[in-house]
Write a structure and sequence with these properties.
The chain is α/β, with parallel strands linked by helices and 272 residues long. The chain has a single domain, classed as Spore Coat Polysaccharide Biosynthesis Protein SpsA, Chain A (Alpha-Beta Complex), CATH 3.90.550. A hairpin with a 2-residue loop joins strand 6 and strand 7. The termini are far apart. This is Glycosyltransferase family 2 protein. InterPro entries: Glyco_trans_2-like, Nucleotide-diphossugar_trans.
Length: 272
């Protein structure tokens, strides 16, 4: 295996963030022998112009599509990705300049694994009318001591930014989900390759600043309930659940979310 990497970025009508955050971090990579698959969801013309002006030895595969949403756009990127390994980076996130280099080394040093992710430096900021009103506390995710069981059970926060896995035509983002689409994608990967197929790369290689304007920041507990109930209803589809029985935790999660809805609780980290 040559361990070459495709990074998929789906972007929707955010040319300034795409240019200053995502693009800048892509161009800063010390290892430039990778493919960048960009899906311009909605065919924003300013975004197209930014991409046309890129001058870099990085291989760029650019696709435009009518607006179709994040999951469909990522899945389209998976269809176009041509390298042995595929990973993800959203338009408002950044990878540190040694990300590609260290990810490749990680897979080369651990030929038994099929998927990996590094540690993210994270923050949750609150905006009002486009202006920052509260900067969140810095934290890291996942914790270096997180186990594979923690990821399957949802005890370790999983996010697809920086996540990398072997190409596989059967694994795609579930378009029925929004809040838990990344987590469900990870369950598919565990179900395909087994419990020991994932190995956390214990280096800080991704910078991820969530905002109150984003999908999670704008979500309600009703959105979380819908996705969690979907996983419970369809639990037989995930082979990994034959190893770790979800009846130990998913019903409890559903009950806890319902309690938060009844108490009219807000999503933590995004209130002023």
């Amino acid at each position: 295996m040559n361990n070459e990497l495709s990074i998929i970025t789906a972007t929707y009508n955010r040319p300034e963030k795409f240019k200053t955050i995502c693009l800048a971090s892509i161009l800063s990579q010390s290892q430039k022998n990778f493919e960048w698959v960009i899906v311009n969801d909605g065919a924003d013309q300013e975004t197209r112009k930014i991409i046309e002006e890129i001058k870099s030895p990085i291989s760029i595969n650019y696709i435009e599509t009518p607006h179709q949403g994040l999951c469909k756009s990522r899945n389209l990127g998976l269809e176009y990705a041509s390298r042995e390994l595929v990973g993800f980076l959203d338009d408002d996130n950044q990878i540190y300049n040694n990300y590609v280099e260290q990810i490749i080394i990680h897979f080369q040093d651990n030929p038994h694994i099929f998927m990996a992710m590094p540690i993210q430096d994270r923050r949750r900021d609150v905006y009002r009318e486009g202006k920052l009103v509260r900067k969140g506390k810095e934290f890291i995710s996942p914790k270096p001591e997180a186990s594979n069981e923690d990821f399957v059970r949802g005890r370790a926060i999983f996010d697809s930014n920086g996540f990398v896995h072997h190409q596989n035509e059967r694994i795609r983002f579930n378009e029925n989900l929004l809040i838990l689409s990344d987590f469900e994608y990870l369950l598919q990967c565990f179900s395909e390759w087994g419990f020991d197929s994932f190995l956390l790369l214990k280096q800080h290689l991704v910078r991820y600043i969530q905002t109150s304007d984003g999908i999670i920041g704008q979500s309600k507990w009703q959105d979380w309930l819908k996705d969690t109930e979907y996983l419970w209803k369809n639990r037989s589809q995930y082979k990994i659940f034959s190893i770790l029985d979800p009846s130990d935790w998913l019903p409890q999660s559903i009950a806890e979310i319902k309690r938060k809805i009844e108490n009219n609780e807000k999503i933590p980290g995004f209130s002023e």
